[in-house]
Every structure is written in structure tokens, then in C-alpha cells.
Amino acid sequence: MGRTHNEQSEGFPGGATVGVVKESADDERRVALVPKLIPSLLAAGLDIVVEAGAGAGALIPDSAYVEAGARVGDPWSAEIVVKVAPPSDAEMAQLSAGQTLIGFLAPRTADNRIEALQRAGVQAFAVESIPRISRAQVMDALSSQANVAGYKAVLLAASESTRFFPMLTTAAGTVKPATVLVLGVGVAGLQALATAKRLGGRTTGYDVRPEVADQVRSVGAQWLDLGIDAAGAGGYARELTDAEKDEQQRALEEAIKGFDVVITTALVPGRPAPRLVTDAAVRGMKPGSVIVDLAGETGGNCELTEPGQNVVKHDVTICSPLNLPATMPEHASELYAKNIAALLELIVDANGCLAIDFDDAIIDGACVSRVAGAPGTEVSAP
């Protein structure tokens, strides 16, 4: 395993070792660190070891890491292991007691591995659990990857659409711009609205949190007001009451029928995605219309969604891509790596040794497996 805090203080050069693993999931092309960030981590006292081929999915060769100052080797023996997707069974078997794991760990899902990490004595930080406070914005991996998903969702919609997005005036006549409705205007939704606007679409945004109306207008979109307020804690929407769900569904069914493209991004942490687009709403859309459902991993916002598939129902194409950020691995990895680098710098001291302070709101919020006596925790509060 990597050097412990005590071993480093007894004369070992440098600080903690950070292992960058090659993602094992077939559809995961991102990597947790990119070469351009390695010099700053080395300057912070960290030692970086990268698994051979870790950056291949993002078209980053091993030589680029070596040139940046990292070394190619076994990342699973490092003191800190950083990755993107939650660990598989095979990856879990490579972790050892006393290690620290950082990545997307899906702590709110029923099949999460948090208890297994605790039993194994592995300290773990889930990037999706980082609190949404101003100081943590640079570490907000949910937002950085949602930007990618929102952008790519619009390109997917434009590709599947039977109509132009922009208004076109030609010798053969004028083509009206496509009308685009985005349901759920968090980071992904706002990026989708902005991207659709750049492509020339006539954009409208809706969310159950009316306070985001100004954000919708700030990207040149109109606000769809259904008179429902479901603002919740931490910048997320709360779950609607049954009466509110019925009212929202009725109003949305009528509104959706007037749009050429509907992009849905509505999620409630730890719960199935709310159903916003009913069979009746799809039936009422014009033939050739497109729905892109970004909530497929938690069941989908559309009643007819088949997660991971493109299907045609009532002459409407319904796309439910899974893990869209992985389809843009270069920039998605670069953004994610910045999040990881910022978190790494928070959990080490001036010498690059693990020094985890659980009195820090970011560290306390992100830690989903806390192990008593783990390396670096001796500096934290009891």
C-alpha cells in the first residue's frame, strides 16, 4: 500500500500517493485526472501513479502523464485512489484497509457499496455528496458533468429531429424555428437551454422552483409558469405532494403538446425520477417530435422512456441516453479532474500528507465511509 502519514514523517520523500485507475465499465471513457493538472498536484507534495491505459478512453496516452511528472504503475496500492464510476466487485477486491477512495460512489442508491467499503476499512468520499456551498463550487462534480450532459442532450435532440432548429429564410420559403422545452432547470437544464438557443431554437424552461425563472430568462429562454412551488433544501427540488403532482401533470400535458423538442433533467436525490411526460402528453405531440430524457438512470421523467434506448412511440422519438458525459470524454475528464484536484488539495497538508479535518463542512458532507484511525484522520476533531 502507499506510504502512511507516519512513514512519510520518518523520512520518506514527498507526500501521499494518488492512484489514477483505468475505468472498467464498458461505456465509461472518462478518467479521474488529466496530465495538465499533475504539475500542481506534484507541487502540493503528492505523488501520482497512473494505471497503464487509464486515459485511453479520453485519448490521453500514458506518455502524456509521464511527461507531466506522473509515473505509470499500480494505482490500487496508492494511499488515495481516485476514479470516476462506483467500484465494481473486482475493483472492490483490490482496495485495502486504510486506503482513501474518491469518486462517484452513488451513496443514495439501493445497491451502493458504502457498507462494504466501511467493512473493508476503506475511507471514502463521494463527489456527489459534496455540499453545494460557494466554497465547494470548484469541487462540484455533479455540476461539471451536468454541463456536459445538458450540452450533449441538445445535440442529440437536433440529430434525431425531423426539423431544423433555427429559423431559415430561403428561396423556397421560410422555415419556423423549432420550439424547445426544458423540464428541470438545474445546471444541465440551463446548459440545454443555452445550447438550444445557440442552435436557433425558440426555448422555454420549466421547473417546480419558481425562483429559477430569472436564470431561465438570463439564457434567453421564456419561463413556463404552472403555478407550482416545490423549492427544497440544498438547491434541489422537494418531492411534490400528490395534489401538486396531479396539477403539474395536467398542466404539463397541455403545454408539452406545443413543442417540437422536450428535454427532461428533473431529479430528486435518492428517489425515482418524477414522471413529467405522460403517455397522453407524448400522444399529443406532433409526429417527428423528440424527447431526450436525462433521468433514465433513475427511471426517467417520461412514462414511455426505455433507459439506455432510443424508441419511437406515437411517432415521437424518445431518447434516454445513460452516462452522456462519457460520450465527451476529453472535456468531461478535464472538468472532473479539476473537481478531484481541488478536493485532493483540501484533504492534504502543506507537505502533501493526508490531513483530514472533519470539522470542515465539505469533508464532513462528502465522506460516506469514515474509518476510525485511518491515515490522516488523526488531525481531525474527535
Describe this structure in words.
With 382 residues, this protein is α/β, with parallel strands linked by helices. It has two domains: 5-129 and 348-379, Rossmann fold (3-Layer(aba) Sandwich); 147-327, NAD(P)-binding Rossmann-like Domain (Rossmann fold, 3-Layer(aba) Sandwich), CATH 3.40.50. Helices cover 29% and strands 15% of the residues. It contains twelve helices and 16 strands. Strands 3-2-1-4-5-6-16 form a seven-stranded mixed sheet. Strands 11-10-9-12-13-15-14 form a seven-stranded mixed sheet. A hairpin with a 2-residue loop joins strand 7 and strand 8. Helix 6 (141-160) packs parallel to helix 7 and helix 6 (141-160) runs antiparallel to helix 11. One of its GO terms (biological process) is NADPH regeneration. This is NAD(P) transhydrogenase subunit alpha part 1.
Q: Could you write a compact summary of the structure shown?
A:
This protein has 382 residues and is of the alpha/beta class. The chain folds into 2 domains: 5-129 and 348-379, Rossmann fold; 147-327, NAD(P)-binding Rossmann-like Domain (Rossmann fold, 3-Layer(aba) Sandwich). It has helices spanning 5-9, 38-43, 62-68, 89-92, 114-119, 141-160, 187-198, 213-218, 242-256, 279-284, 329-346, 361-366, and strands spanning 17-20, 47-50, 71-72, 80-82, 100-103, 123-126, 168-170, 173-175, 179-183, 202-206, 222-223, 261-264, 290-293, 310-313, 316-319, 367-369.
